[in-house]
Write a sequence for this structure.
């Protein structure tokens, strides 16, 4: 029997009042817009959980089933589902509100994600997701593995059909939420995982690794996760045979699987782990479990006895999915001792195919399932890093996307790939930021990848063992190095914002990174700009994923600005939508645009600690908005031990007044610092004429700042700013001159071009001059961006 920590809590059997059984079919109504259709000639239907679906119980739903001439019709309060009588296939859905009929043909699927990006060089084929553009999706769960009440995976019998029909039209978020309802929510991710990870496939010695961590600390670059790739254990055949006097009989000549620390590299691994912990680092080790447990491993005798092998035989303990004894020993003997020594979670790297000793069970899925469950045993919020195993894998974060080439084409695919995975309900991809191997050296490419990494779910620097491919910032040219430090610090400071979105993802089923059409499903541009995505509730990210234009020394990206005012959080420039525009940035910036009224919490604490900050800074943008900051205790009982702080902003542009309020935190306020400095930075307001009766205003980097030095759990604030005015470009012509000055062209040609602009001063005059002047696209589009600024 599996130990209790490995048995998932499922609720897979539906209530009788949700079910209608006909001749060779059974229909379960799960919501007013989601039904399950099973087809079985023997009337043997499935009540076990599947890999994808764990919960079929629902409150009473009013529905009817009619058996008509050609169709079986299932009617709820909102839709009618038409199922062909002849072959029991879903035909179409009728929306009762408007009478619209939508076919159940899964055409125009917006795609989901895929198992891995290993050895890819750009775009790769994606599996279907749960979202069709027409608003109806049929999910076929007929072939997935089952999970019984004792927590064991078991094979489906027969050729039954098991279909789920989602009919949420273009309310894509509701489709995903409905899937989470039957599959289980996205788990909460621990705060430390949201900072900067160091990872590299390299045979570090204990001293080398600790010295490297000290170097990051000396450079004031915060890290939260320290990864040790597979060389933490014995890997070399000659070392294994020489040290232990055994004939190595593993897969190939390299020991990918291992559980015993390499004492040549790590003479005192407990001291090594202790030192990392003292520096507020969380630790993960790489695993390749496929080759079982060899006789030379430190824990071999205990493992052999646990699965019924006489240790004297030196017989290898095989990796077994079907054996409860194996799974219990696998965790209790191989992994728990190291977790007690300081290992926080495991990086599972399964690359050995999809077959196991349980028919239909992908070993990757069993590893992800049991590792994630077991990692919660000590009461901390669990985590793994592993590969994607299909629909339902959202329950086992995080996703390791594999080994990609270092190239612009790979970078250009990753923003779309990352956000689009929301369609498969898979929201926590982790990439090898900077690329893993092959490719070519390009410092600008590293910088752009880093910038995308800051605004991706997980910021994990990684590369292969080649000595020349390290991702340490100081290994790049000086301007890139300086810029990289700032971006890595920014990622660390964003942990309060990202963690709040992490909680929103868990509680409300809204991904951190979402395609634009989730927010704007009726706008055709939302489907066209595939590399552009929402990053939480407040920000829209438009990564630059192509080389600098050498004529202007700018990176460029085409962007669709939805309706409203959008302000670049780096440049301070504001734009009005609805429009398509080209945005241009130096290597030190990408367009990250805050919506009207955005409130973005950042930690200003120094060092590696990822805890709830003692110094909290809010970037505030004029508008009307409410933001709830979420903070917790890092434990599995976080639902009982969390604190929420509500911040609101309202803006009356006509009166020139902005009001900001902060409610006193509520919930378990013991999880947040007893005293906190709260800094308010008003990012898009002119500071010159602003006044506040209650608080003093300082000016920093062109922004008005108010400090609340002692914001306790009992504190609240109500701040009225008078003379509040949106920042606008003072001299558009000066900006045009700046653009023409940057143009890498001979002086005579530039002077001739400028003659058209010389006597133009207003925006209309400048637009007319631009229209008359024959300029390269890169120059004219940069000038056009200036003319679109507020």
């Amino acid at each position: 029997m599996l130990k209790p920590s490995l048995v998932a809590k499922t609720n897979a059997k539906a209530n009788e009042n949700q079910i209608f059984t006909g001749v060779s079919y059974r229909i379960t109504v799960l919501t007013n817009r989601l039904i399950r259709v099973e087809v079985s000639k023997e009337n043997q239907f499935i009540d076990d959980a599947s890999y994808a679906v764990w919960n079929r119980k629902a409150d009473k739903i009013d529905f009817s089933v009619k058996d008509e001439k050609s169709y079986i019709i299932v009617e709820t309060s909102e839709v009618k589902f038409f199922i062909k009588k002849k072959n029991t296939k879903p035909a179409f859905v009728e929306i009762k509100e408007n009478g619209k009929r939508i076919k159940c043909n899964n055409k125009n699927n917006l795609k989901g994600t895929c198992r891995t990006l290993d050895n890819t060089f750009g775009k790769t084929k994606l599996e279907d997701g749960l979202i069709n553009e027409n608003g109806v999706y049929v999910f076929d769960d007929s072939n997935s593995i089952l999970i019984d009440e004792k927590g064991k995976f078991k094979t489906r019998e027969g050729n039954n059909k098991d279909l789920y029909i989602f009919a949420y039209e273009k309310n894509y978020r509701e489709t995903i939420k409905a899937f989470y309802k039957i599959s289980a929510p996205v788990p909460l991710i621990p705060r430390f995982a949201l900072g900067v990870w160091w990872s590299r496939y390299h045979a570090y010695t204990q001293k080398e690794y600790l010295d490297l961590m000290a170097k990051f600390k000396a450079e004031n670059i915060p890290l939260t996760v320290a990864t040790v790739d597979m060389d933490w254990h014995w890997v070399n055949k000659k070392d294994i045979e020489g040290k232990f006097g055994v004939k190595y009989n593993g897969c190939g000549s390299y020991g990918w699987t291992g559980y015993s620390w390499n004492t040549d590299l790590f003479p005192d691994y407990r001291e090594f782990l202790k030192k990392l912990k003292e520096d507020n680092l969380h630790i993960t080790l790489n695993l390749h479990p496929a080759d079982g447990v060899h006789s030379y491993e430190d824990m071999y005798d205990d493992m052999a006895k646990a699965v019924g092998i006489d240790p004297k035989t030196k017989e290898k303990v095989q990796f077994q999915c079907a054996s409860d004894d194996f799974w219990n020993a696998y965790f209790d003997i191989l992994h728990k001792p190291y977790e007690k020594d300081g290992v926080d979670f495991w990086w599972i790297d399964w690359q050995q195919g999809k077959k196991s000793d349980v028919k239909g069970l992908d070993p990757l899925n069993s590893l992800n399932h049991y590792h994630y469950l077991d990692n919660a045993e000590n009461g901390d919020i669990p985590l793994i890093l592993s590969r994607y195993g299909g629909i339902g894998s959202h329950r086992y974060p995080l996703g390791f996307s594999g080994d990609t080439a270092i190239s612009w084409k790979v970078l250009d695919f990753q923003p779309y790939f990352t956000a689009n995975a929301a369609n498969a309900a898979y929201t926590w991809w982790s990439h090898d930021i900077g690329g893993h191997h092959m490719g070519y050296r390009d410092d600008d490419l590293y910088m752009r990848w880093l910038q995308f990494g800051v605004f991706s779910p997980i910021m994990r620097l990684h590369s292969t063992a080649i000595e020349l491919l390290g991702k340490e910032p100081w290994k790049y040219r000086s301007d890139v190095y300086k810029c990289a430090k700032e971006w890595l610090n920014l990622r660390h400071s964003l942990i309060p914002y990202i963690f709040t979105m992490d909680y929103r993802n868990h509680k409300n089923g809204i991904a951190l990174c979402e395609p634009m059409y989730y927010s704007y499903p009726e706008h055709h541009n939302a489907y066209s700009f595939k590399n552009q995505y929402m990053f939480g509730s407040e920000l829209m990210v438009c990564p630059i994923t192509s080389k600098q234009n050498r004529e202007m020394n700018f990176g460029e990206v085409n962007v669709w600005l939805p309706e409203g005012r959008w302000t670049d959080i780096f440049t301070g420039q504001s734009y009005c939508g609805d429009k398509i525009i080209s945005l241009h940035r130096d290597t030190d910036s990408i367009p990250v645009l805050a919506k009207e009224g955005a409130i973005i919490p950042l930690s200003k604490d120094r060092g590696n600690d990822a805890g709830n900050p003692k110094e909290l800074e809010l970037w505030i943008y004029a508008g009307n908005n409410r933001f709830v900051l979420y903070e917790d205790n890092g434990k599995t009982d976080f639902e009982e031990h969390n604190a929420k702080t509500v911040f609101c902003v309202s803006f009356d542009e006509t009166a020139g007044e902005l009001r900001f309020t902060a409610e006193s935190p509520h919930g378990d306020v013991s999880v947040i610092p007893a005293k906190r400095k709260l800094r308010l930075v008003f990012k898009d307001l002119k500071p010159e004429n602003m006044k506040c009766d209650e608080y003093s205003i300082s000016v920093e980097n062109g922004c008005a700042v108010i400090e609340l030095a002692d914001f306790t759990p009992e504190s609240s604030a109500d701040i009225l700013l008078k003379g509040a005015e949106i920042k606008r470009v003072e001299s558009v012509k000066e900006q045009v001159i700046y653009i023409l000055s940057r143009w890498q062209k001979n002086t005579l040609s530039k002077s001739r071009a400028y003659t058209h602009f010389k006597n133009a001063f207003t925006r209309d005059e400048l637009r007319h001059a631009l229209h008359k002047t024959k300029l390269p696209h890169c120059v004219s589009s940069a000038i056009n961006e200036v003319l679109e600024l507020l």
User: Anything to note?
Assistant: The longest helix spans residues 324-341. The chain is about 25% helix and 25% strand. The radius of gyration is 29 Å. The chain has a mean pLDDT of 95.
